[in-house]
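Entry 12.
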Amino acid sequence: MNKKTHSDELLVIKVRHPALHFLTSLLMTTPLSKFKSDTTESTVDVDHRLWMQAALHGYEDKRGGVETTFGDFEEAKKTAAAIKWEAIENLGTLLESFSDKLESRGTKVCWASNGKEAVDYILQVCRDHGTQKIIKSKCMTTEEIHLNPALQAEGMEVVESDLGEFIVQLREEEPFHFVFPAMHLKRDKISAIFEEKLGTEPSSDPEELTMIARNLMRRKYCEADIGISGANFGVADTGMISITENEGNARLTTSLPKVHIAVMGIEKVIPNMEDLSVLLPLLGTAGAGQWMTAYNSMIGGPRQPGEVDGPEEFHVVLVDNHRTRLLADPEQRDALRCIRCGACLNVCPIFKNIGGHSYGTTYQGPIGSVITPHLRGLQSYKHLSYSSSLCGACTDTCPVKIDLHHHLLRNRRDAVREKGGRMERFCFRQFAQVMSHPKLYRGSEGLMRLGAKLWSPLEGKKADPLKAWTSTRTLPSPAPKSFHRQWREQRGGDS
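Predicted 3D structure (tokens):
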């Protein structure tokens, strides 16, 4: 059993015996408590933080150079945002057109309202074919629905063909970054896991390490009964999925096995084939600082009569999994425009310091902090929206112009509205009253100074009423003279 499966099962264990209930509660961890412990551990690892920051600084330089090759990069972003907005506003119609065209060419389409339905459908397809071995190309939607553990629990071998995904799979870790899964690992750690799991000789040569994985994969492609992939886009007017990649593993995954299953979030659909002329270059530039990714494939069905390659059977699994809940939110539905480029992670000062594993989610960084509360529950994951500098770098860099940093604020607001403490509500109401009325604000200056004097002897002690806040912050002392008072004195009494 891998770590992720163990963690997920632990959170849903039910113990009826009272004597065991307390012990179980001690073993269970909430997303918030795990986030706190993981961030504490990651932020003290200075070498790792410097490694991360150096790697992402190189990305920024590379992306900046590619952006200049666009005639008007900002206009391209506006066009991409408009394309995705049209898709979200007409999602039902586009999905029906997409599905109908796929089915007309013999594709089997599954509409999965949640992760369990998607997993159950894929398991049944595998059982029907007596599947023993599965090869997968990179697909974060399968990470989201925990597909791999379900397949492995049925005794099937599942191998990730993307190099980064393969490395973290060997280490029994989740992807560190949803575009660069193994970006946190240096060559020595990759060499060590290959030596331990594959019995290879130590090496610090990137090409040699890549060839070790490639030689293994060539055999796995030929042995696989089923290939599973994701989809970067689903084109409604042609009924085809678009897959973009840099290694070529997706092409082998989707063409060599007799059965191909594509797993796709419903928000990935776009209206027309022409839209890819904008979206694919933007995805390459924003995601990896490339004008275009190396391999771009279009798949519209199983092998047709007269064709020499491709799968005999093709399934497309359309996953909702609370996306329609986000679609129903008029303020934040533009988060469904995300094309999973990872650019917001690459510029986020929080991600650069705490790393991807600290988030404890499938989707990390700013976009993960925005959508995870919608996908997994606002109260359980509201802390992610508070873990932000609100600098706005994520919004500026987004190639489809999602209003990310304001969505983080909206999540905070909604979390308090939904389940805010009485004292917290009272304090904020009083604060709003004081800040909205100049006379009340000026009259509170004396109370602030009195409160500071009363609080000062308690600072840092057990009886400190502000200890939860001041343990990680310095509470500033009130100024000897307020701005208004200084203004009046300099203006001769005028206010």
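Annotation: The chain has a mean pLDDT of 89. Strands lie at 108-112, 133-136, 157-160, 226-229, 233-235, 240-245, 259-265, 269-270, 295-299, 313-319.
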